[in-house]
Predict the 3D structure of the following.
Amino acid sequence: MHVLVEKPLAARPSEARRIVEAARAADRIAAVALQHRFRQEVEQARSIVATGGIGDLHRAVVVATYPKKASYYAAAPWRGTWAGEGGGVLLNQGQHDLDTLVHVVGAPSSAFGVARTRVLPIETEDTVEAVLTWDGGAVGSVHVTSAASDPPNRIELHGSRGSLRILPDALEVTRHPEDFADFSRAPGDPFAPFARGETLVQSGGGGTHAEIYADLFAAIATGGTPRATAEDALPALDLTAAIILSSERGAPVRLPLDTGAYDALLDHHVSAAVTGAAT
């Protein structure tokens, strides 16, 4: 049968790959509920980046907070556990933000993360900081937490010709009249300021589950491909695992992910949690 999976596709990237392979072997659709891909402001941003609207990407910034009470985890004891959920705020709430980032600008080539359990009574992380790098030279930062509040959730992209700020239901776009690479090479006054363009705000909206269902039904009816397949979900899941693995190692982790190394880490945490509960 065709399948629609809620996010995350799986707790382990290795499991996610088996889902992709099974769907391919059965010639059936495996879609994932990554509804942020249907937000108008996200699609507008993706189009602008793809057509060179902000030039070469220099920096990406993700800030996402999902403040939770301890009762949120007590209400469903599998939440925030290695055996039950397989991860914390990054795998659960932050999966949307990481997927939006890679959907708009592509997957990074490495991640250096720090994951901590700051406030909430859970086994897994409630706060994550990470530094990302892309092969083209761009760098980025990620802050995701369920132990603080810093609205609004946002993704900022800064390039040589402009910048974007993806907000809930809106997109801020700044296009510079000159590419910074050209400005840096131009003769003349060494203290001349760089001329920034005007910032325009475009309205957004959408990103509902109803859109996911309609998209899936259309793909089934026409033999097409839905907007968010299981294969599409792999980069954000790999990035999640890379950040957690990096935090454990205290060193950057290259992508694509070594799924075996992450399986070993998760097995270790599950075993330790079970042993701790037994004692």
